[in-house]
Write a structure and sequence with these properties.
alpha+beta; Lambda Exonuclease, Chain A; 7 helices; binds iron/sulfur cluster
Amino acid sequence: MKLYTDEEMLMLSGVQHYAVCPRQWGLSYVGMQWEDNRLTAEGTLLHSRVDNPRTRRRNASPVVTLRGLRLASHTLGVSGIADAVELTPFPGAPHGKEALINSRKFTALPIEYKRGKRKTNDCDRLQVTAQAMILEEMLGISIEKGAVFYWEERLREYFDITPQLRTDVRRMFFHMHEMMRGGIIPAAQKKPCCRSCSLIDLCIPAISGKSVDKYLEKILAPTDD
Ligand code: SF4
C-alpha cells in the first residue's frame, strides 16, 4: 500500500471543492488561485466560531465534543481539521466500533458545519466520510455514521458512512494526487453550480473558449516593475 509523504499531503477541505467541480479544486490547489465571495466568506466566519481547538466542552449529556481536531492520513495522503467530533461513552450510541481513550471506551461521530441548506448532491457527506476514514486510521476504530449541521436550517443531518461513499472518497483523493503531480487543471464546463462559484471570474476566460493554461500563464507572468 502506498503511503504518502508529508510533502504530498493534500488539504482535507479540498474534497468538497473537488466534489462540486474538479476544475474548482484544480484552480484553487494546483493553480493556487482563490477568490472569496459572500458565501465563502460566511463559511470561513462560521468555521472560525465552531472549530476553535481550545474548546473541549462537556455538555449536559455524557457526550464529549472535541472541536478543531487535527487529522492526518498517510494512506489517503490528506490532512486537515475536523470541525467537531462527538465522543459518546460506550455502550450508548450505535455509531461504530468503540475507541479506547484514556482507558475509557467511546464511539466517535464526526460533524461538519455548513452555513447553507441541505444539498441534493453528496459533497458534504463526502467531506465527513473522509474525516471518518482518517479518524479510523488514526484511532484504530470503525465509524458507521457521520453528521452535517446546516446553519441556515439549524438542522443536523445524520447519514450512514456507506461503502460507496468510502470508495468515492478514495477515488477522489487518488485523482486529486494525480492532478497535483501532473499540474493538471481540468477544462471548464458550464453547470448550475457555476452561478455561486467564487472562482467564476477566473474561470470565465476558459468558459468563453480560451485555454486556462494560457490564461494562468498571462496573469502569472512576471511584471516589469
Ligand atoms: S465557474 Fe463553474 S466550471 Fe469554473 S470552477 Fe467554478 S464551478 Fe467549476
